[in-house]
Amino acid sequence: MNKHHETGSEPAKFDGRMKNMSSIVFYVTVREDYQKAREDYFPHIAASYTTISKSFTKGKSYPVLAVRHMTMIAEDEKNVETSQFLVPTESGNFIWVQSEIFRFSGLNPESK
Questions:
Q1: Domain residue ranges in the chain
Q2: Strand intervals (E) in 1-112
Q3: pLDDT 10s digit of each residue in the chain, 112 long?
């Protein structure tokens, strides 16, 4: 018997596209030269994200605690589909940050 039948609850229903995604914790590091990467590969990302990227220590792994899909308006006024990561800050808070700022570093904090 399915668990949702045993408890009387209904299974989750999706509207064709998951607005938020759950996953295991994985680790990311800030890109080495985010300004250049932004210019070369992510020109749709606002320049203000370069300032945000400087808030993270280069070479340090940060756990991604959640991922969410979002549509943003780029500097050229076009809609761009992207995602954000929920990561802890150096001050012990949490912030949703554009995923393009980071690169994957592994499934454990010692990964590089």
A1: 17-106
A2: 20-21, 26-30, 62-64, 66-73, 79-88, 94-98, 102-106
A3: 333 334 444 444 444 455 555 568 999 998 887 667 667 766 666 666 667 777 888 899 999 999 999 887 777 777 878 889 999 988 889 999 888 888 999 998 875 5
